[in-house]
Amino acid sequence: MRPFELTAPTTVDDAIQSRATFLAGGTTLVDLMKLDVLTPRHVADINGLPLRGIDSSDGLRIGALARMADVAAHPGVYPVISRALLRSASQQLRNMASIGGNLVQRTRCTYFRDVSTPCNRREPGSGCPAITGANRMHAIFGGSDHCVATHPSDLAVALVALDAQIRLAGPDGIRTVALAEFYRLPGDTPELEHDLREGELITEVVVPRLDWAANSTYVKVRDRESYEFALCSAAVALDVHDGVIRDARVAVGGVATVPWRLPGVEAALRGAPLTEDAFQQAAALATEGARPLPENGFKTKLLPRTLVRALHELTEENR
């Protein structure tokens, strides 16, 4: 780790004016600094800022510095969010990691984290060896000729399914952005992963009220049961009445360069009965447009199965 200056602002304005790299839980930043992937000269410890509250009185408002473990345990949090958090990292990390930090964590692509290899996200124009190299964990949606790294956050998948927004404070004031629009596809600028502008800070996550999101789940398929990133995951919420799906929200992770919403699957589920055939037909639409790489073609089969598993979980909860 290289030398850096550490400050501890006590107000949001002071943090913004510092133009520093922000440190909250440190569960990603410190790792990347140790690897020399990130080498900030000025780090601002923002843990003293008043951004920790959780309010579920009308929808859900989560302060950016709320810890993942605290949000997962909060009784007003929708199940899909709680389950996504509980399947993220280890208990020790969930006790430290912040909600805002989780949403802007960097990819776990091994090429990105290894400074001895090229990576367009780390060093634009250097190349993407994952396209022809080890790419079992990589994306089948949203990739480009410059990057195929998957988005790492489980929480972001659940929040995108629920149309969450984030509030950002920066030098030009406060703005609100839909989380689904916050993340950028790599295109030919994979180093620009999201719409966080210089000096900006996530202050809050806002989830609109959706009463039927109480009937929701998050299924994560991975190589081992704990402390592992998703091969495929599914965030699903269903509005069910008299055995018929009136509405659905579906987003998936582990398969795309950003949290990936599936509007075609949602449309197929609306008006469908809670039957195996309906689940299979809707889930089959999930792989439309997929571009698998040599080592991750299995995800085109795993994704529909993961969705069907999530739908079955919610069916059992409706009985």
The CATH C-level name of the largest domain is: Alpha Beta
Q: Which percent bin holds the helix content?
A: 25-40%
In terms of quaternary structure, what is this? single chain
Strand elements, count: 12
If you had to describe this structure to a student in words, what would you say it looks like?
The protein folds into 2 domains: 5-107 and 150-207, Uridine Diphospho-n-acetylenolpyruvylglucosamine Reductase, domain 3, CATH 3.30.465; 211-317, CO dehydrogenase flavoprotein, C-terminal domain (Enolase-like, domain 1, 2-Layer Sandwich). It is built from 12 helices and 12 strands. It has helices at residues 12-18, 29-34, 68-73, 79-86, 91-96, 99-103, 110-113, 154-161, 179-182, 263-269, 276-283, 299-317, and strands at residues 5-7, 21-23, 42-45, 54-55, 60-63, 165-170, 173-178, 201-207, 216-221, 232-241, 244-253, 260-261. The strands form 3 sheets. The chain has a 5-stranded antiparallel β-sheet. Strand 2 (21-23), helix 2 and strand 3 (42-45) form a beta-alpha-beta unit. Helix 10 runs antiparallel to helix 11 (276-283). The longest helix is centred in the last third of the chain and has 19 residues, at 299-317. The model has no long low-confidence stretch (mean pLDDT 96). Residues 1-212 form the FAD-binding PCMH-type domain. This is Xanthine dehydrogenase YagS FAD-binding subunit. InterPro entries: CO_DH_flav_C (IPR005107), CO_DH_flav_C_dom_sf (IPR036683), Diverse_Substr_Oxidored (IPR051312), FAD-bd_PCMH (IPR016166), FAD-bd_PCMH-like_sf (IPR036318), FAD-bd_PCMH_sub1 (IPR016167), FAD-bd_PCMH_sub2 (IPR016169), Mopterin_DH_FAD-bd (IPR002346).
